[in-house]
Each structure stands twice: as C-alpha cells, then as structure tokens.
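Action item from last week, closing it out:
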Amino acid sequence: MTATLQRHANGHYTWSQCDAESKVELFSTAFLYGDQVVLIDPCETSPQVESELTKLGRLSIIFLTSGNHERTSSLLRKKWGIPVAASANAVPEISQKPDIILEEDQTIHDLTPIDLSGGAAGETAFFHPRSKTIILGDAVIHLPKYPLMILPEKYCTNPAGLKNSLQKLLQLDFEHLMFAHGNPILSTGKKQLAQLLQTP
C-alpha cells in the first residue's frame, strides 16, 4: 500500500493497494472540488492516507468506474456519510445500490461520465476538463513493466465494442490519464491513447 497520498502535476492525488487475490496493484484517485474531496474507486486506505485526505477538505462523494470497483466505497459511505455514484449498468454488480445513478454527459463535481460499453459491467470513464484529465477504470490499464493496454478480451463484455467506445475519448481535450490499475500518464496521454487504439 502507498504509505502516503501522492500529489500529481495535474492537481489530482492517488494512493494504491496491492490486491493479494488478483496480485494487481489497485489505484484510487482523489481531487479537490472547492473545499470538498472527490474520490474515484477508493481502495483500502492506511491511517496516514485517510488523515491526509481529510486534511485536504471534506470527503463529499465517491464515483465508481464499474460494478467491479466497489472496493471500500460501502465502508467509506457509512463512515463519512457520503453518497456513491455509479452507472445504472453497474448496479447488479454492487452490493449496495448507489445513491446517484450517473447519466452520460451529466457533470457532477466537475466530472463528466463517459459510457465505455463493452468493458466491465457499467464501465465508465470520467472527464475532468479543468485539469484536462481522464480517469479510467478497467477499460485501459497501465501496469508496471507493461505497455499501455486495453482490458484483455476475456474480461470484456464486448471487446470490439469497448475499442469503439474508447474512440469517443479522443474527441475530448485532455493530456493526462489516471488509472484504476497503474501509475498516471501525466503528459502525452491523448497521444498514447490514440496510438493504442490504432493497434490492430
């Protein structure tokens, strides 16, 4: 687990946890919306990370990128009394119904959800135009020692459909990519995503 909260050049924060079952590093993103702290796909936090998050501002809302990424959201919702937001297609995979059902192009706390059908159930990217950042769940992963890659086909509901869905992101003005699995790409993010999608 990341011992402390990591602040990045785009103004967003991350922390991570190694998942023993899947043997994959889980990454979570946070950013400030005024004096409020917005969380995306929150995994387990150390006391240090939780302390640093609360010092940033008031924890106000949790966004999930898919039905697979409930992680610790139910615990944090109960502990901090904050709502959870997710796609309607993610609901069957989540143990507790989200407080907010996301609709594409509906901006909440500076985040615009982008439906990435074809990935996991309810797969959603989030666009943060102010920082020119896109936050991804499973749709695209950036694991250590591996190149940027689209979610392997065996985990997709429709592999070809996911690749088509990802093309929508190239219409947006962004430079930075944040991931639920892997370190952020804080420059040339759009270029790297375009190159990935051109790969046969």
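Closing note: The radius of gyration is 15 Å.
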